[in-house]
Amino acid sequence: MAGKMVEFDSNGSKAQGYLSVPDSGSGSGVIVIQEWWGLVPHIKSVADRFAREGFVALAPDLYHGRSATEPNDAQKLMMELDIPRAGKDMAGAVKYLRGQASVNPKKVGCVGFCMGGGLALYLASMGVIDAAVPFYGVLRNQPDWRGVRCPIEGHYAEHDGATDGLPKVQEALKNAGKQATFHIYKGTQHAFFNDERPQVYNRGAARQAWDRTLAFFRQNLR
What we know:
The chain is an alpha/beta fold. The chain is 36% helix and 27% strand. The protein has helices spanning 41-52, 71-80, 83-98, 115-125, 161-164, 166-175, 203-220; strands at residues 4-10, 13-20, 27-33, 56-60, 103-113, 131-135, 152-159, 180-189.
């Protein structure tokens, strides 16, 4: 299957994203949120993987056409990202999916990686999705967790600074009475799921995290 770029409404303006639809023509929806690199081929390939598993996947372009290949450039793009605007773009993507005839049932989850993992948590706090899966992501500032209306399942690396901030997130979610489970994969580093980064990719952990993610979405997006 081949995905395509689509346009959707976002806060009175327009945003774009990469849409991939399963061969069956329908399924529940998944928002795929980019790493700090931007909407690069790897993220599009993840959307295609979800489509092959029967989900309608949309990866919004939160950098609006920009991307990076070097860490310094990626960090600059990430630091320049306006989080409230990104939230509106992601919410617009959710609304777009719910409006598609191909999304049936009308349930939408989200998965995000690195920066996108933190944004998946932020989107969950907005109360507009049905399931959230952050991969090794935390937020610069804690959102209002009382807004969470969905279960959360996180996947984190053992050797990663992002994991150091996880206990604070767990405690805040627990205090807010929210349902959340976090898995930490021994012997792994940040971005262990990214098969285009051989220096950190961990095939076993990536496979286990992928299987858990699919099971989680199938349970909560029925």
